[in-house]
Amino acid sequence: MWSGLVEALTKAAAAEDHTPCGGGGVLAEVEERGFAVVDDAWPAAQVAQLRNEIEALHAADCMEPNQVQFATGSGPIRLTKPGIFEADMHHDQRRQACPGFDQLFHTVAELQSCLATRFDVALEPDARPPAAPCTAATEVPATSTNATHSSTTQERGTANKVTKHTESAEGEQSKDPDNKNARDPTAATDDDARSSGEQQEQLQKNQQFSTFTLKLQYNDGTGGCFPYHYDNPAPPNKRLLTVLVYLNANWQQGDGGELMLAPFLGKPQVIPPLENRTVIFRSDRILHRVLKASKPRACFTLWLDGANTNTDDVVFLREKHLTPAFVPELVRSPLQRTLSRAVYEEEYERSLRECFGANPRDTKYAVALHRAHLKQTLANDKLRQFVQHLKTARQW
Ligand SMILES: O=C(O)CCC(=O)C(=O)O
Ligand SMILES: [Fe+2]
């Protein structure tokens, strides 16, 4: 089922110098630049079927609003991205309604083994106990306030459900990439013998023993967008690679909904969500957002876990990193996540306002979290100076 894409990736790798990175093809490009775009990898009939399945799910009201959940001292708070709906394919019953995606779901290993030729993707579910939630975003200096992650954080592949703190807010605002704890609106239909709680439990169990996440997304074209985020903001998230496939026939300039990638300090890339376009990027080091869409837009995303994502050396920023000499390494390292909100503070805030603007309460909350994070980062002299340096090194 993934053979079109696998073939495109393999062929490109065998070809001579078709990519900016030379002979290694698309996968080398992802390794070097952190992202790559592949057009027309999928058979047209498959693209049409997948688009139809997403539209049918949306029309039947079987997708849930894309939400972000924050755990706070006074209970969880959920922010909804207006206009954006999603369906997690780990939900067995929902998959029955979309045979094309069901087949994709059961054959992800085809793509995993192709990508494993160059990336450290997890091929087997992790048998180890879940990683401890990250308790410190930076170790510079030892006195700096550390992000605290909720102990209710889900075990795998998801953003942290956070408290007032800031570091993991990237993941939450990113959409809580999985939002595993959100209630599934399809879980309480009349013909559903089980309770929504049981279904939710089953969904979480399915996700826990998987090395990937497959989700469908429908944007209804009423201005929905995503604020800046990393798909893997911090532990216990395990995502290594994000694979996005767009299904929008007749997309035109002005329709909006472009994916905007912002490689750290580099030139941003605006990528129209054209039909049969696949975008692959490193989940832990490509900052991105989606611009407002004024036309309906459909896509699906496969997130592949890594076997060794978020090891301490890419999570904890140390004093030795705070030097201009480290910048070339930082732009290729997930360590950048610790500083990204400070380096792009205005862009983050603007994107949050665009995303949650329709709902003043949510906007206020999202912006407050962003600012709290900034305050924490910038309270430290060394970090503040280094951020200043990084801002001057930005190419936009
Ligand atoms: O819809 C897109 O183009 C990307 C969505 C996204 O960034 C996400 O789901 O994490
Ligand atoms: Fe994303």
Automatic annotation (TrEMBL):
Its domain of life? Eukaryota
Q: Name one GO biological process term.
A: cellular response to hypoxia
Q: Per its record, what are the GO molecular function terms?
A: ferrous iron binding; L-ascorbic acid binding; peptidyl-proline dioxygenase activity
Q: By what name is this protein known?
A: EGL-Nine protein
What is the annotated signal peptide range for this record? none
Question: Which residues belong to any copy of the Fe2OG dioxygenase domain?
Answer: 209-306
State the needed cofactors, names only.
L-ascorbate
Q: Where is this region: Disordered?
A: 129-207
InterPro entries for this protein: HIF_prolyl_hydroxylases, Oxoglu/Fe-dep_dioxygenase_dom, Pro_4_hyd_alph, Pro_4_hyd_alph_FE2OG_OXY
Q: Which organism is it from?
A: Salpingoeca rosetta (strain ATCC 50818 / BSB-021)
Comp. bias regions, Low complexity: 133-153
Ranges of Basic and acidic residues composition bias in the record: 164-183
The record's SMART domains line, in alphabetical order, gives: P4Hc
Keywords (A to Z) from UniProt: Dioxygenase, Iron, Metal-binding, Oxidoreductase, Vitamin C
